[in-house]
Amino acid sequence: MTSSERPASAERSTALRRALLFIVATAPISFIPRRFPSFQPVAVLGVLLGVTLLFLWWDKRPSSDLGLAPSWRSPVSLLGGMLGGVLFIGVIAALLYVMLPFEWARNAAFLPRAAATSLGVLLIGAAVEELLFRGYAFERLIVSIGLWPAQAIVLLLFVLRHMANGGAWQSVFTGPVLGALLFGLVFVRTRSVLVSTGFHTATNWVRDLSLRDPPTTATWFSPVAGRGWTRMEGQSTLIIFNAVALFACAVLYWSIRRRDRKLASGDTRSEGRHAEGALAK
């Protein structure tokens, strides 16, 4: 090992140790079921944000490394991520409208207050999950072992969290897996927990607003509003949903690789400051 390789190796080793320590330190939040009243979402969010900032301080790195620096850019990043999530579900809804003979209709049981409350709850929940799974630990894992091994670890943790909260393994290994993969690539592309939080929030909210099965009071205008879907309708929707998610993942990964090639060639005019470590190994 050359003298220049030793510091890089030591840095990767330190990044891995601290990523694992963060995962262990936040394990109670990750795996204790959300039905426990002592774990209120807002309090959990505050604790997670504090732990994340503490680990960044330990690294002697700014909060901007995770897109968490308080500035005028913060709401813009959150809103930008939400617009991306709206576009993602909008594409799925458009394909369903064109390809499947659904009976699209307004849900007579829709309540605007329920939809607004749902947005707030989903925003807090998404922020908690993004800090847990696409924040400090994920970024340090990428630096130490590369993107796809880091994704694999985070996918496993994300699936275990959903199972701990009552998710059936059949559903957990479809939606949450593809969701974790997609949200992870959004974070890697933007280097911002706020963007991935906005995307995560909007994806869940607009899905519930327009594609909920069965519809609830937070579902506004959707296929077969007012009744549950048949098995064939649900399976067809899942196929289209997964296909769009995989396509979005492919586009994001292509964009990440393109960015990294530009940075490797010294062209940083359109990409801004690059975080340490290769993000798409």
Q: Tell me the strand order in the biggest sheet.
A: 1-2
| Mean residue pLDDT | 85
How many helices does DSSP assign? 11
Number of strands: 2
Number of domains: 1
Largest sheet: 2 strands, antiparallel
Categorize the overall geometry: globular
From the alpha carbons, calculate the radius of gyration and give it in angstroms. Answer: 20 Å
Indicate the structural class: mainly alpha
Instruction: Report the order of strands and helices.
Output: HHHHEHHHHHHEH
Helix content: 55-70%
**Unreliable sequence segments:** 272-278
The first-to-last residue Cα distance is 20 Å
**How much strand?**
under 5%
Protein described:
The chain has 281 residues and is mainly alpha-helical. The protein has one domain. The chain is 69% helix and 1% strand. The chain is built from eleven helices and two strands. The protein has helices at residues 5-25, 27-31, 41-59, 73-99, 112-133, 136-145, 147-164, 169-172, 175-190, 193-210, 231-264; strands spanning 105-106, 221-222. Strands 1-2 form a two-stranded antiparallel ribbon. Helix 1 (5-25) runs antiparallel to helix 6, helix 4 runs parallel beside helix 10 (193-210) and helix 5 runs antiparallel to helix 10 (193-210). The longest helix has 34 residues, at 231-264. It is globular and about 60 Å long. Residues 272-278 have low confidence and may be disordered.
